[in-house]
Design brief:
Helix content of chain A: 25-40%
Strand content of chain A: under 5%
Structural class of chain A: mainly alpha
Order of helices and strands of chain B: HHHHHHEHHHH
Shape of chain B: globular
Helix content of chain B: 55-70%
Distance between the termini of chain B: 28 Å
Radius of gyration of chain A: 16 Å
Number of strands of chain B: 1
Order of helices and strands of chain A: HEH
Structural class of chain B: mainly alpha
Number of helices of chain A: 2
Number of helices of chain B: 10
Distance between the termini of chain A: 20 Å
Largest sheet of chain A: none
Largest sheet of chain B: none
Shape of chain A: flat
Strand content of chain B: under 5%
Number of strands of chain A: 1
Largest interface: A-B, 50 and 70 residues
Oligomer: heterodimer
Chain lengths: ~70, ~200
């Protein structure tokens, strides 16, 4: 767990330095992210997504909350 | 937070910006940019990082671009009468042919992740660079159902479907003869793919 935290903070620092951090929001211009959708979420009935959010991941997002 | 209208889930600012970068690339590569999109791109304001400088270059290019001219450029690059200068599909880059095994693998992964195509809108194969960038953006923000994909899941998708060819594609775009506005798009993509590769490696 400690190792995981260390790695994610190292990764976040790296992303910030690379131009993807608070205050360097060059790509965050309003409205650009709304891509003309070519893909969408599967309908609930054919939902087959394998991923389940584990406690581990939940904690990661909680810790990483800005 | 900028991403609240797109991202109903709490993700870090870095991840929100990664998603925005993917979404920007997806929008610019999916079809010729509209006048409205060009205007928004013209307002981009990067920092002093390599990526930020490339964004500034793109913004400058957008300020002297028109939708008409960009449609011509897009056509020359990606469509063209005898095929555009570039073929932005993973299968083509990896095997020299469309509809090969990499596409089959992608279809399997998309089904598993709950990502479906909008059939009426999209007739081209799913391994188009814009579709893959859109898929990455959605995995990061949790647009496909059960919340943001775990980093390991994002990493696996990136490695399998983008890591092996996207950086080369963006380098080719940057060097393409017909590319003017799309030259900085190629540069942004090339740098961003490298950032992603290194960042994923750090967390692995």
């Amino acid at each position: 767990m400690k190792d995981h935290k260390l790695k994610s903070s190292k990764r976040r620092d790296f992303l910030k330095l690379a131009g993807l951090g608070a205050g360097a929001a060059g790509v965050a211009a309003a409205g650009i992210a709304r891509a003309e959708a070519k893909v969408e979420a599967a309908k609930p009935e054919d939902h087959s997504r394998g991923y389940r959010e584990s406690e581990h991941v939940k904690k990661y997002y909680a810790l990483a909350r800005f | 937070m900028q991403a609240t209208d797109q991202a109903p889930y709490a993700i870090t600012e870095e991840d929100a910006l990664r998603a925005q970068a993917y979404a920007l690339l997806a929008r610019l590569l999916a079809e010729p940019p509209s006048a409205e999109l060009i205007m928004r791109v013209a307002a981009l304001d990067g920092d002093a990082s390599v990526l930020g400088l490339a964004l500034n270059e793109l913004a400058a290019a957008a300020r002297c671009a028109s939708a008409e001219r960009l449609e011509e450029e897009y056509h020359a690059l990606f469509i063209g009468l005898a095929g555009g200068e570039l073929t932005p599909y993973g299968s083509y880059y990896l095997t020299g042919f469309l509809f090969e095994k990499p596409l089959a693998e992608l279809r399997g992964d998309m089904a598993r992740l709950g990502i479906v195509r909008q059939e009426q809108k999209t007739k081209e194969p799913e391994d188009h660079i814009a579709t893959l960038c859109e898929a990455m953006a959605g995995l990061i923000t949790g647009a496909f159902g059960e919340g943001p994909a775990a980093l390991a899941e994002q990493h696996a998708f990136f490695d399998r479907h983008l890591g092996s060819w996207a950086q080369q594609f963006f380098a080719d775009l940057e060097a393409a003869e017909a590319a003017r506005f799309y030259r900085p798009v190629g540069k942004i993509g090339r740098h961003f793919m490298e950032i992603e590769r290194q960042a994923f490696a750090m967390a692995a």
